[in-house]
Amino acid sequence: MEIRKEYFADERQDDLHEIGQSRPRSDLPGHVTGKTNYFADRTFPGLTHLKMVRSPHHHANIRSIDTSEAEKHPGVIRVLTAKDVPHNVYTILILIQVGPEDETVLADRKVSWKGQAVVAVVATSERAAQEAAAKVRIDYEVLPAVFDMLEALKPDAPEVNEHHPGNYYHYDSGDHRKVRFGDIDAGFAMADHILEQTYHSSPIEQAPAETTGCIVTPDGNDRFTCYTNTQAMFFTLDNTSIILQMPGHKLHMVGGTVGGGFGGKVDVIVEPIAILAAKLTNRPVSFIYSREEEMQISSPRAAETIILRDGVMNDGRLVARKVTGYTDAGAFSRHSPYGAQKGAAHYPGPYTVPNVWIDTYCVYTNRTPSSAMRGFGVTIADFALEVQMDKLARLIGMDPLEFRFINAYRDGDIKAHRQPTEGAALIECMQEASRVANWPVAEKYMAMSSRGREA
Amino acid sequence: MAIRKGRGVAAINYPTGMNLGGDPSQALVHSTPTGNFMVSLSSVDLGQGLKQVMAQICAETIGVPTDLVTIDTADTDTGPHCMGTFASRGTHRIGNAVRQAAEEARQVMLEVAADELEVNASDLDTDGTGNIHVKGAPQKSISIFDTALAAHFKRGRSISGRGMFLVPRSFPETETGAMKPATCYAHACVVADVEVDDETGEVTVVSVKNVYEVGRALNPKMVEQQLVGGSWMGISHALYETTEPYYPNREHGGTDFNQYLMPGPGDLAATETIVIERPAADGPYGAKGVGEMCANPQIPALANAIFDAVGVRIDSMPITPERILRALKAQAGEMRTG
User: Which residues are in the Aldehyde oxidase/xanthine dehydrogenase second molybdopterin binding domain (chain B) (predicted)?
Assistant: First the structure.
């Protein structure tokens, strides 16, 4: 890696001692010699193991649950169902006033995705818990399921989640988040060319080396210590407090050393049920996802469908950009309404476009709930935007890099969401890319600056 | 049938911190009796090195070597609130909280040193190696070790500080979408070179040249590890990864690392990384969040390079050999019929 200090040299403070120095990481020797303690390295006398009974169906009513055989299985200490969970329907972002509560800790009347948790089994060994889980009998009435976002939005589609009628998230702006800037119709009317293209992605797993999990110990004073690899300690504590109707001071979260997150450990999934199990059994409880659970049960990055309709002039100026984005939340919200909204704030990308129209929808389908992942709300948008930029450049016979210079945002430009641009550096990144990749562009582009427009 | 070469470019920006703000983080800093500094947080190190960067920010601000700073995290009994480690927020949000806490602690430290040296605190400075001296008169000095001892056992002062950083919450206007989603943005431009086998649809990423603008590289080696790791993840996203290969069909999802495809070491491209720094006005020593943005531009750059190589557009991620071959066949069919 090289730092090219000639760019923005006058904005950098260079009299520092520790900042800007590649000091070796203090935790590195522990990591590379296997000495670092992760949550799962802890052992406790009498440790028990929690395994989940999960829905085999994408969508079904639960007629009955019979745990009698599982409870008799050797080693089983306790079997938990929805009626054991004090506040069973929750949503993570209720902490920042983003509702409604829409997800069960343990399903009671209905399952909405294949893999949804229904019954928790606590036993003295992982094997006993697994075997007992297989003895839980659940009678399902299978329902029609919907997997395609546009199908889910049709009026006669199966209802994925009773808290989201119509299978979309209800923003205060209606069935989608909106951004309106300039006059989109005028922009298209003046355009020399209009290009409309549709982009798709599929769900992606965060795939951390260390799977999601926690170990809980009852402290003997009605307090519980939870060793966890969550990415957000108080998110976990406060949501657990709500779900278990347990005051926050009864909960003690210990973490901070994690084997990779990438957004996959932002949901509050394992801790509340493990703490409840520790409370009801008065035993330490371990609940750790298997690799299969990490792959197919924990929230992936959402699939998206993005329709971009652009108006461009022969001289390379983008004059209109209309975006329709769909985010596949799966069966429950988790962080997806936030992600779809973040997408709305991101479009039309790092370009100054005078006429912009953005609609982003958060759609519910009968699949594993999606949630945060590195680049949340933006990664797939950038795929669509930057492939579209390539197509537009070729459409008007222009070099794709030069086309981006013409439209790049600069300090002072007003973005579609009506904030002035500050601290832009896209042009300088492209200038350096031109040099390092030996991708020549006209001298006028190499003379541009993000700090302002040429006279 | 042949190996075809192609080149593609993409340029992106990325916001630092939670969209629309409202994501606070706190830090507490105190000195031990012998002038070491403890930073108490509830922030999570995901393996990216958050603790090391916080130690360097604290050390820079107080004016001591980084070795003297210990990060105590993440325990909700002892660490003040942090929203969490996500949204490219750690370095920026928590770093600002650590800096503020360290500034307050430094001020007390200088006041104690001033009492010991019988000068004004405003006339003092640190040398970064563990000493405090009178500006312009380096011989008139006291060690931070002795200053901390004096604070504890003679002066009765707590060398400590509190830090809190919050970007206020913004609420989007319902009809126009007017809002303030972020305060600073990182940037990138990537050029990717590929070879595509038009018989098998296989893509070899020959090289990626990544230019990233990061605000300020607080620890360049750690910035590099994150940028290079992100670049590999971007390649993986572009060409390999999904839990539902035939989405929206729910079948055929991988359940382990044999079935869930990712590139192995032999599949990784020659990776060149260039960093540009435009310090963020509100970042700790100018830093922006770069954890997420570094994995984004490779995806479209590769899609564009593949088009440049074989003349087909794959507008669905991931761009698998199967999708490339199907597109090539469709293109050949069009040529025959057209």
Answer: 4-267
